[in-house]
Amino acid sequence: MWDDRFDTPDYVYGKAPAAFLTDHAGWLTPGARGLAVADGEGRNSTFMAQRGLSVTAMDSSPNAIAKARALAAERGVRVDHVEASITDWDWAPAAFDVVAAIFIQFLRPAERAAVFAGMARTLAPGGTLLLHGYTPEQIAFGTGGPRNPDFLYTEALLRGQFAGLEIVELRSYEREISEGVGHSGRSALIDMVAKKPA
Q1: Of 19, 72, 114, 141, which has the maximum CB count within 10 A?
Q2: Cα 193 from Cα 95, distance rounded (Å)
Q3: According to its UniProt record, what is one Pfam family this protein matches (predicted)?
Q4: Which domain covers residue 55, as residue numbers?
């Protein structure tokens, strides 16, 4: 499904990074090791590299990765693009200083729990998790994201799933976004910034 979605010369979610990532760019420390989870066409990993991070970007779609590589080259940055399924990814312990997981809401609850645990595990002590997605209220807007409420986030869900991290910011809100044809219009969003204890 995802490879078909990205089988177009257009960037489905645009070339600009997610507004969430630019809003939280202060957490992107030059020289840090960054992981962009299910990064798609590369807009977020490219921005992370532009901020001076050493970035690995993983995605399962060859079409998306080809566009991600082209975008990184266009912007003059280096990103290590890896073709891999999010459910098979090796969440090596303490491998990254920053993990960015932006609009990855295509996982069933059991899969999501395993991925969330992996993201926490792969953070180095003192590392930062940047997580962004939709709340169940998004279904009424219909401006992007899944139609199944089981795939969406609530503050209570994220607090429970990341109980081992120190949550620095967790908020739900509405905002107009324009991120390609895939995410466009009034949206019900949720942001979380969490730190792994040092």
Answers
A1: 72
A2: 18
A3: Methyltransf_25
A4: 2-195
Phi-psi region of 102 (alpha: psi -120 to 50; beta: other; left: phi over 0): beta
**CATH number for the domain harbouring residue 164:** 3.40.50.150
Q: Write down the pTM of the prediction.
A: 0.95
Nearest to 165 by CA among 189, 191, 192: 192
Closest CA to 43 of 18, 74, 79, 6: 18
What is the phi/psi pair of residue 61, to 5°? -95, 115
The residues, ordered by sequence, that sit 6+ positions from 80 with a Cβ below 8 Å of its Cβ are 55, 56, 57
What DSSP element (H or E) covers 128? strand 123-134
Burial pattern 47-77, b for ≥16 Cβ within 10 A else e, equals bbbbbebbbbbbbbbebbbebbbebbeeeeb
Burial class (CB in 10 A: 0-12, 13-18, 19+), 114: middle
CB 39 within 8 A of CB 68: yes
> How many structural domains does the chain have?
1
Rounded to whole angstroms, how far apart are CA atoms 64 and 74?
15
Residue range 127-180, pLDDT digits in tens: 999 999 999 999 999 888 899 999 999 999 999 999 999 999 999 999 988 886
